[in-house]
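Exercise 3.2. Students should predict the tertiary structure of the chain below and write it as structure tokens, then compare their answer with the key that follows.

Predict this chain's 3D structure.
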Amino acid sequence: MSDYSFMKSGVNNLEENEANTEKEIVAVILHFMENATRSASIFVDHSKRNAITVEDVKRGLMLEIFLFSKRVDIKQDIIRIKNELDDEDEDDESNEDDDNNEGDESNEDDSDYICPDDEVMEFKESLCECAMCKCLNNVYDRWGKWTPISPIELIMKKHIEKM
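Answer key:
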């Protein structure tokens, strides 16, 4: 028998595991950000403002620290995001081979979502009485009493507070 192609040395396995771990981490962070941004968006809408501000995102991130581990479909959502990342990687690889790539068509409608800085309404808390708005209006109370337990929580708290 002279065909040993079925044998693996383990070198590529390390690279594949490292890439997989990196994608897992990116997927978790993206899921965290997706939820925080969604909360901020709801808050802005209920506040009757026209754009998400840094303060909205900060409050959304603070709230997500408390909610993330309690979310029901977290594993399925992270798998979905990881699959989307895999699909993007495949698209990027196919676009590298495509000589006729003249522009990014996916950004055509971005202007519908961008508000010029001089038109952004100033941050204000929501007068809405829904649970989301109440939570985001009062998130600093809970945040001030919260003590991070894990190293990742310490890192996140430090960076959120810098915003």
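Discussion points: The mean pLDDT is 84. Residues 11-46 form the longest helix (36 residues).
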